[in-house]
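Extended Data, panel c. Modelled sequence:
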Amino acid sequence: MKVMILVTGGCGYIGSHIVKALTDAGEQVVVYDDLSHGARSALLCGEELVVGDICDSMALRQLFAGHDIEAIIHCAALVSAKESIDQPALYQRVNDLGSRHVWEEATMAGVKILLYASSAAVYGDPVSTTPIKESAPLMPTNPYGLTKLAGEQSLQTLISPDARYGIFRFFNVGGSEDQGRLAQSKSSRAIVQRLFAVAGGQDKQVVISGHDYDTPDGTVMRDFVHVTDIARAYVLALKYLRLGKPSFILNLGSGQAHTIGEVIKAVESVTGQKIPLKYGPRIKGDISYSLADIHLAKQLLGWEPGAPLSTIVYDGWRAYVQSNS
């Protein structure tokens, strides 16, 4: 059997970009996905797909038994903070227990490199506006953040002594690969996708949750990072861990914060459309300010984010138009 990299959730938005980056780098990839939020068409190079649920331990066991897996990249997850407040049990099942199943089966199969797609939501609402370091307190404010943190903790608990792990805490991810074939789903509730839906005529307006925050224009501030920069970090991480380097936890962001008001202006500039807005109440558990300290990722992996907000919006809009044409 060929030595392969396993990507769970590899048909989803971020996962499919990681799969593409791995394939472009010459890796043999197998994808495990239940296709609830992804599609086979997201595998641009015909990578092998095994359809299955991360909560199904037996299916995972059969997957590992039938493939020589060198490393696993675990991306499969539910990702909406708002939805997690309404359905906490679902998030606990998928993000917490599902991740535990992945780590248990990978460890029993002897996998020595394990990479996890975590989230900046594990930090909760920071107490200051300084960039968030990986050593910052972990105080999630919603079930999404809590269950992503649980996935980190179970990985560190269940990994075998001779294995190594990497945990990436994503900030706000956007954009698309250079041909616009892998669009982010509107169902993700990502603010940029909601704005695109209005610019593209699918929705009449965008509801902005809260505009009385202590920020320059009253809207929350976020650190936006291009999805291809995220994918590139995984290629670098595999190279790093294959050299026997120690396990790590790293932030992946741009190191720049923008208010939602600034994002709206960027979308209007790229699309040429005025975005009708409605302001609603704050979302319980929402984070007012988020900015990544990315020095450690630069130091350990030699990783640098390459795309500003304007490029993230431009690439994301191109993908949106293509997927809705």
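The mean pLDDT is 95. This feature is highlighted in the accompanying rendering.
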